[in-house]
Write a structure and sequence with these properties.
- α1 links the parallel β2 and β3.
- This protein has helices spanning 28-40, 57-66, 76-82, 109-121, 125-131, 145-158, 168-171; strands spanning 2-4, 19-22, 50-53, 71-72, 88-90.
- It is built from seven helices and five strands.
- α1 packs across α6 (145-158).
- The chain has 178 residues and is α/β, with parallel strands linked by helices.
- Strands 3-2-4-1-5 form a five-stranded mixed sheet.
């Protein structure tokens, strides 16, 4: 969760009465886990002056930079790219497991094992760049329990309230994606 360096916002609780930019309504980082973190800090939808789902993480960063929103949630790689002028800072960090690669039920175990080993052992930067990842790791379904719990908490406390908000990017004449 980011804010401008000059915002004066120091904690998540300071976001009460402020405007917040979320990413895609179905995003774990851009919505669900950020909302769960806000709830944990005692900040609910009704406590914010306004909020919107802007779609892409880069649009969230830009909206915060422009002052359309006092804070927003985005992935760390987008923050690093967007913060070339050092006008943003991290207000709050939270962990998130990466996106899983899954196979169909009943897939031969030998195929699963061979694919898993190949991906985890891959060190070829060109191949990894093609997948837009820095590497692969083994995971279990239970590794995603914190994500499921965060999503459930966000749904319970925030629901689907205001999912039709206008993107800030549309106000700036850019095409946004949902």
């Amino acid at each position: 969760i980011i804010t401008r360096t000059d915002s004066g916002i120091e904690t998540l609780a300071d976001l009460k009465g402020k405007r917040f930019a979320f990413g895609d309504p179905n995003s774990t980082i851009g919505r669900y886990l950020a909302q769960a973190e806000l709830v944990e800090a005692g900040v609910f939808a009704r406590d914010l002056a306004d909020y919107a789902y802007l779609g892409r993480h880069d649009l969230v960063a830009r909206a915060v930079q422009l002052g359309d929103y006092e804070a927003g949630s985005l992935k760390s790689s987008t923050y690093k790219k967007a913060n070339a002028r050092n006008d943003l800072r991290i207000l709050h960090r939270f962990t998130n497991v990466t996106k899983p690669w899954i196979g169909r039920s009943g897939l031969d175990g030998r195929i699963v094992e061979a694919l898993s080993q190949s991906l985890v052992q891959c060190q070829d930067e060109e191949v990894l760049a093609g997948f837009k990842v820095s590497g692969f790791a083994s995971a279990r379904a239970t590794d995603y329990d914190p994500v499921r719990q965060g999503m459930a908490r966000a749904e319970k406390e925030w629901g689907d309230y205001k999912l039709t908000r206008v993107h800030a990017s549309q106000r700036h004449g850019e095409e946004g994606s949902r």
